[in-house]
């Protein structure tokens, strides 16, 4: 069996950042990812990031991903791709498949950075070809250079729905509208303004009543909602579309954490059930850390910072950093995380993270 000091499950923004921090401390680390390419969501994000210079504001997501990959190579991080992990067993033994065979790797510490998955929305006709997640559409246009459809309806006005709508327009699609069940757009105004200027109508307090088509989507019926989110008869509109993209939030991919016995707590603003963890990103299981969207759905910059935090903490626990040095490094990361969680959109996430950590501490003090 292969052995290493730290096994990172997930090669997205958080996982790569964690691997880099461990390698920087002199630790031996292996990153496992089920995809054929590492980097996760970064490589389908062609828009420029917001924030500060520290968070590479003005840099496009795929460029940040490229920098992370270059750093992993320079530091000698062992990255194994096309290797889905399907279990963690006694002694922190991680089992994964590669080239049709089962493999095992034992780590002294494990960092779970498994990301998130798109939520679905059920309505009559939602199983027709042409109905897909917005993230899938984003992968098709930005990674595979394939336009998913010519006439698209977007459902959901969070940042994913707004950004993917704009990118579909850039790719040549006609975005015929964006539907949002809430009375207001939930994503950044700057993104909403872009698609509005491009002529995309935003239907707030609306939902999809049904998708129609013979074997594939050809039309969609939307209708207005009242203050109790009930459909208002007589307000239906039928739009010609061949694609319906669903952008109604993400849920943490936490199956592995559940199966090994991590304690969870329910925080709706983080996507639902998330593992409890302390300020070092360590779960209720000693030596098992979480970072990125599995610990609460946020944006890629926060995921990378949480990955760095988990990597530094794991290195400290392995004796690769002194307590003083680790405290200094972790303090820098927490300062940057708190900056990301400032402001109108960040404050709720900051409070949610405090709640998540306090629930860990409540259990630890019992």
TrEMBL record:
Keywords from the named record: Oxidoreductase
Alphabetized InterPro entries for the sequence: FAD/NAD-bd_sf (IPR036188), FAD/NAD-binding_dom (IPR023753), Metab_Enz_Cyan_OpOx_G3PDH (IPR051691)
Pfam (any one): Pyr_redox_2
Gene3D superfamilies: FAD/NAD(P)-binding domain (3.50.50.60)
Keyword Amino-acid biosynthesis: no
Keyword Oxidoreductase on entry: yes
Stretches assigned to the FAD/NAD(P)-binding domain: 5-307
Protein name: FAD-dependent oxidoreductase
């Amino acid at each position: 069996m292969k052995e290493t000091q730290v096994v990172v499950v997930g090669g997205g923004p958080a996982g790569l950042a964690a691997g880099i921090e461990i390698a920087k401390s002199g630790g031996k680390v292996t990153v496992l990812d089920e995809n054929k390419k590492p980097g996760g969501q970064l490589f389908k994000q062609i828009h420029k990031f917001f924030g500060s210079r520290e968070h590479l504001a003005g840099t496009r997501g795929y460029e940040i991903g490229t920098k992370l990959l270059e750093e992993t190579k320079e530091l000698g991080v062992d990255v194994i791709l096309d290797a889905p992990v399907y279990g963690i067993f006694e002694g922190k033994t991680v089992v994964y498949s590669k080239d049709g065979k089962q493999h095992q790797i034992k780590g002294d510490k494990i960092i779970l950075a498994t990301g998130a998955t798109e939520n679905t929305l059920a309505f009559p006709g939602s199983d027709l070809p042409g109905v897909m997640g917005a993230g899938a559409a984003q992968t098709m246009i930005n990674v595979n250079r394939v336009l998913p459809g010519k006439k698209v309806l977007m459902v959901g006005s969070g940042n994913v729905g707004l950004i993917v709508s704009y990118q579909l327009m850039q790719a040549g699609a006609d975005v015929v509208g964006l539907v949002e069940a809430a009375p207001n757009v939930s994503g950044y105004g700057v993104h909403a303004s872009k698609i509005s200027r491009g002529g995309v109508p935003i239907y707030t307090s609306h939902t999809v009543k049904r998708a129609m088509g013979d074997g594939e989507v050809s039309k969609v019926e939307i209708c207005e909602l009242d203050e109790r989110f009930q459909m208002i008869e007589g307000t239906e509109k039928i739009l010609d579309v061949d694609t319906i993209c669903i952008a109604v939030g993400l849920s943490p991919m936490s199956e592995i954490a559940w199966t090994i016995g991590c304690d969870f707590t329910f925080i709706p603003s983080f996507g639902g059930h998330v593992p409890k963890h302390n300020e070092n990103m360590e779960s209720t299981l000693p030596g098992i850390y979480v970072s990125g969207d599995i610990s609460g759905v946020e944006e890629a910059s926060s995921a990378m910072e949480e990955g760095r935090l988990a990597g530094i903490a794991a290195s400290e626990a392995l004796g690769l950093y002194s307590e003083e040095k680790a405290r200094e490094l972790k303090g820098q990361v927490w300062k940057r995380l708190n900056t990301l969680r400032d402001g109108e959109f960040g404050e709720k996430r900051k409070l949610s993270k405090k709640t998540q950590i306090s629930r860990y501490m409540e259990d630890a003090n019992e």
